[in-house]
Amino acid sequence: MKQQKTIMKKTLAEKLIDAGHEFKGCEVNRRNKNMLVYKFVKTTELMEDLTRLTAQ
What we know:
Layout: E1 4-7, H1 10-18, E2 23-28, E3 36-41, H2 44-54
Antiparallel strand pairs: 1-3, 2-3
């Protein structure tokens, strides 16, 4: 099974989707039932984009 990366921030998830990363779906956040978490297939490219986007 492919590893997944969980993203908590909706705007960051939207940027990753726009960049073409493989989005697997949403789940309810276990700690806060009013929030969602976003699941992506974990790749080297995804991790590089995460680093770049979170540094801005």
